[in-house]
Amino acid sequence: xxxxxxxxxIAVPNKGxxxxxxxNIIRSIGLEFESGDRKLSTMVSNFEDIEIVxxxxxxxxxxxxxxxxxxxxxxxxxIEERNVKVEILERLGFGKASxxxxxxxxxxxxxxxxxxxxKIATTFPFLAKKFLKKNKIKAEVVEVxxxxxITPKLGIVDAIVDLSSSGTTLKANKLILLATILDxxxxxxxxxxxNKDNETLKKLLIRLESVLTARRKRYIxxxxxxxxxxxxxxxxxxLSAPTIMSLSEPGMIAVHSVIDATDVWRTINRLKKIGATxxxxxxxxxxxx
Length: 289
Fold this sequence. Notes:
The chain is 25% helix and 32% strand.
């Protein structure tokens, strides 16, 4: 892998739960490139000099810190586990999970203090030991490679420290949550002392921010009596103000606005209640403030 001064290299996971959503978001900002299981790197064909480099998600934080690559997409959990100094440029909103401490139901471990003198399996030994020290718990940390949740059943350990995205895996293995160490999600990272004036980086961040902003919003259109416009403005004020258009029917208007994606159904119910009709919700591809 030969790095030139002009090429901006972005490290992405070469496998695992973060790979597919990472490639999806890179493509969603308009970057065109080839991907494949055996590729080590590939050039972006339509955006100046950008190279996509495929690396394990766990190694990306160190590659970025040491300047081997310019940018990387990985999880906050892996950044903290590697104990590196990098800058988070954007939170990407996918790959959300929590690093938790859990133990088998009915085994007598019901609180953190019960972990004293026990064995704990994890793929996050640094964070596990740091958490135990902070909470003054003396326990043995056993580093394992994958399938952490099964280790208590096998009698290898008494508890685990592992990632949990929904709690389903914990329940399936009859594990109870004792504590949450940290919350994680996928992030775009750069070196702490990186040159933020790089024009390619600026353009890339503008594209990325436009997509991330759009994903958090929805475009809403409706017909309504003109007399309820003041109420509509309070419910769906838009970015600065909604767009208003007169309809051929006297006393009726069409209103277009932007609302938070997380608030769609509550907003629709409120609008219907005051008399809005023909409400249409549309996803937004990109949004630039």
